[in-house]
TrEMBL record:
The chain crosses the membrane at residues 75-94, 101-121, 127-149, 189-215, 227-250, 270-288, 300-329. This is Urea transporter. The keyword Transport applies. GO terms for cellular component: plasma membrane. Coiled coil: none annotated. Pfam families: UT. The record marks 312 as: Important for channel permeability. It is a multi-pass membrane protein.
Length: 335
């Protein structure tokens, strides 16, 4: 190889190494973070916790998702960041760091969703600072509820998913209601909670946008720009997860088949549970084969038809049933 070829190969080699460093789960970055001071480790854990909502453990992905949340609503993003930080610190104080679970973000994603949705559901609007107190309290309880559920689910080798978020958020909404003097909630109809503010002229364009927006609705965001940043974050960590998120969000047809209001379908509310289910089966818990790919699509379809009103209850309930049946099947198959 001549000198000119060597010179041209060096920049491309450095670029390739840089791309490899920032993609995947950034293991080399995680090893470097372990040698740093606690505040750096917490920052990495919070960013990974934000990304773990979508089953990825990459701090750059978490940063991209946070950027998207700030584009949607800075107040919601601030509450989600606070929730992730408080739940991570709470898990650290409770010494729940089994197998480095805290700094992998596994105790931060429920806090992220709790903070985000508490701000989205509040009828006091943006920058109502008193909301930070229940946010901190509920986020502190996330690792406690997660640890309690994990001790039960471990008997069947099942993860807790976002069940702590569902339980704590619904408890908060049930305790405050719409008439609370300090923390009133919106009337919990999906159309009121998530109004799609991009008024489009053609139905096919609305349906097209509902696919990426359905992925963004995992964080309660209906902005296409936020959804694109979330998808970019997934692509950065795992192209397979990004693909399954889009395929799962395509199940808006279930909403049309069940005669759901078109505004709900266009705003992605019939896609986010299916997207999570498709990611879990096709990109996380099983190796990527054509069989698991088909299973992930079937799982997403059934999850779309389990039309529960709020949070990620359909995703949790159907995945528990699916993984429990698979666990029972493995128990009865002779080796």
């Amino acid at each position: 190889m001549g000198p000119s070829n060597q010179l041209s190969a060096e920049p491309s080699g450095r670029c390739l190494r840089a791309v490899r460093f920032f993609t995947g789960d950034m293991r080399r970055c995680g090893q470097w973070v372990k040698r740093q001071v606690l505040i750096i480790q917490l920052l990495d854990g919070v960013l990974r916790g934000t990304a773990q909502v979508m089953f990825v453990s990459n701090p750059v992905s978490g940063l991209l998702i946070l950027t998207g949340l700030f584009l949607q609503n800075p107040w919601w993003a601030l509450n989600s960041l606070l929730g992730a930080f408080v739940s991570t610190v709470s898990a650290l104080l409770l010494r729940l760091n089994r197998s480095d679970a805290i700094f992998a973000g596994l105790h931060g994603y429920n806090g992220t969703l709790v903070g985000m949705l508490m701000a989205a559901f509040s009828s006091k609007g943006n920058w109502y600072w008193w909301l930070l107190f229940p946010n901190v309290f509920m986020s502190m309880l996330c690792p406690v509820v997660s640890s309690a559920l994990s001790s039960i689910m471990s008997k069947w080798d099942l993860p807790v998913f976002t069940l702590p978020f569902n339980i704590l958020t619904c408890l908060h909404i049930a305790a405050t209601g719409t008439a609370h003097p300090y923390f009133p909630e919106y009337i919990c109809t999906i159309t009121t909670l998530f109004a799609f503010f991009f008024v489009l002229f053609f139905v096919f364009l609305q349906l097209f946008l509902s696919v990426p927006v359905g992925v963004g609705q995992v964080f309660g965001c209906d902005s296409p720009w936020t959804a694109c940043l979330v998808l970019l974050a997934l692509l950065l960590c795992s192209p397979a997860i990004c693909l399954h998120a889009l395929l799962g969000s395509l199940k808006f047809g279930a909403g049309l088949a069940l005669a759901a209001p078109h505004e709900d379908v266009y705003s992605g509310l019939w896609g986010y549970n299916s997207a999570l289910s498709c990611i879990a089966i096709g990109g996380v818990f099983y190796g990527l084969t054509w069989q698991t790919h088909i299973l992930s699509l079937i799982c997403a379809l059934f999850c779309a038809y389990l039309a529960l009103p709020a949070c990620t209850w359909p995703f949790c309930l159907f995945l528990f049933c699916f993984l429990f049946c698979f666990f029972q099947f493995q128990q009865h198959v002779p080796e």
